[in-house]
Amino acid sequence: MRLSNPRGGYDFLSGIRPYSAGAVAQNGYEIEHARFLEPLDLKTGFEAVEAHLRRMNRPKQALCGIELRSPRPFSFSGFEEFNKGYVAVLRAWDILLAGEVNPVARTNVAPEISPPAQPCLYGFSYTVPSESKRRTFVLAGAGELPEGSLDPHEVVRRGETSPEAIREKARFVMKLMQGRLQGLGLSWADATMTAIYTVHDIGGFLRDDILRPMGKASGHGVHWYYARPPIETIEYEMDVRGTLRDLMLS
Question: What is the pLDDT of residues 177-198, one digit of tens each?
Answer without folding.
Answer: 999 999 999 999 999 999 999 9
